[in-house]
Write a structure and sequence with these properties.
The protein is built from three helices and six strands. It is an alpha+beta fold. It has one domain: Nucleoside Triphosphate Pyrophosphohydrolase (Alpha-Beta Complex), CATH 3.90.79.10. A hairpin with a 2-residue loop joins strand 1 and strand 2.
């Protein structure tokens, strides 16, 4: 089985006295040319993440992917956790892939959410701030909902993060 290694970030930002995280709505494959259906498509919310480039450390990947997919710059707080899952490629060889994604807790530094390059619009429909307390319900993937819960636990047990 093929193995893939990715990294992503949970970017914390205090907005109106509540913690928010940066999330993306990925572009759906073929969404622009799809046939209309009677049901509106439910938006998928996910954490920014991507493949680790050769010679890159996972935490560098997380920071790069956050910048590319959301338009914001962040600083590393700490590693949160790894998620592991198997998926079948929907393109090319249709291979089964065992994937490990390392997620890092990050602190917002600068930039405007959703200020991404036109090239990234192929991957990202939009980026937005989501209240952290809503993330375990609104993120589309189970592993990422668990990551959001770990971020909540960290924030609750480390009040110094808000300073």
């Amino acid at each position: 089985m093929i193995r893939e290694f990715s990294a992503g970030g949970v970017v914390l930002r205090r907005i109106s006295d509540a913690w928010h995280i940066a999330v993306i709505e990925p572009q759906k494959e073929g969404s622009e040319n799809s046939v209309e259906t009677s049901k509106p498509a439910k938006s998928v919310l996910a954490l920014p993440k991507g493949l680790i480039d050769p010679g890159e450390k996972p935490e560098q990947t997380a920071l790069r992917e956050v910048l590319e997919e959301t338009g914001i710059t962040a600083a590393l707080i700490r590693k949160l956790t790894d998620t592991k899952y198997v998926y079948v490629r929907s393109w090319g060889d249709k291979q089964r892939v065992f994937k490990i994604v390392s997620f890092y807790l990050l602190r917002y530094q600068s930039g405007r959410i959703d200020d991404v390059t036109p090239e990234m619009r192929i991957e990202v429909k939009r980026a937005l701030w989501l209240p952290l307390d809503e993330a375990p319900r609104k993120l589309a993937y189970g592993g990422e909902r668990q990551v959001a819960r770990k971020a909540q636990e960290f924030v609750e047990s480390h009040p110094e993060v808000s300073t």
